[in-house]
Amino acid sequence: MDYKLDHIGIAVRRLDVSILFYENVLKGTLLDRYRSEAKGVESEIAIMEVGGNRIELLAPTNNTTSPIARFINQKGKGVHHIAYNVNDLDEALKELENKGVRTLEDTLRINNHGRRLIYLNPADTNGTIIEYCDYPDQN
């Protein structure tokens, strides 16, 4: 299984302010902006490209139920997760199971860009929120 850094997710309070920072200071480009009210997401997302790398800026749309809102309340703004692109998500999940690494099963989904993703249980990753993803339509 190959693992390649796909993107870094950053929790922010104000998406417009954060986009301006990434555009004006880091010379980033806004690739997409969308809102997801799916359970367990409830965020507005801006996808930025900075120096050939992808950054997802994540702002909560519901301060009661959004996991991004909970993250900000508990830990503050900043790096929320690191995502790794895997060759085959199904195969990667089998490998995780064989190694005793749990996932947050309710996070398994396909996003607006056709990316299949799931989050690993932070209890098994030394507290880091890690996303595994693949792009089945691009294979």
UniProtKB/TrEMBL annotation:
<keyword id="KW-0175">Coiled coil</keyword>
<keyword id="KW-0479">Metal-binding</keyword>
<feature type="coiled-coil region">
    <location>
        <begin position="79"/>
        <end position="106"/>
    </location>
</feature>
<dbReference type="GO" id="GO:0046491">
    <property type="term" value="P:L-methylmalonyl-CoA metabolic process"/>
</dbReference>
<dbReference type="InterPro" id="IPR051785">
    <property type="entry name" value="MMCE/EMCE_epimerase"/>
</dbReference>
<dbReference type="InterPro" id="IPR029068">
    <property type="entry name" value="Glyas_Bleomycin-R_OHBP_Dase"/>
</dbReference>
<dbReference type="Pfam" id="PF13669">
    <property type="entry name" value="Glyoxalase_4"/>
</dbReference>
<dbReference type="GO" id="GO:0046872">
    <property type="term" value="F:metal ion binding"/>
</dbReference>
<dbReference type="GO" id="GO:0004493">
    <property type="term" value="F:methylmalonyl-CoA epimerase activity"/>
</dbReference>
<feature type="domain" description="VOC">
    <location>
        <begin position="4"/>
        <end position="135"/>
    </location>
</feature>
<dbReference type="InterPro" id="IPR017515">
    <property type="entry name" value="MeMalonyl-CoA_epimerase"/>
</dbReference>
<protein>
    <submittedName>
        <fullName>Glyoxalase</fullName>
    </submittedName>
</protein>
<dbReference type="InterPro" id="IPR037523">
    <property type="entry name" value="VOC_core"/>
</dbReference>
<comment type="similarity">
    <text>Belongs to the methylmalonyl-CoA epimerase family.</text>
</comment>
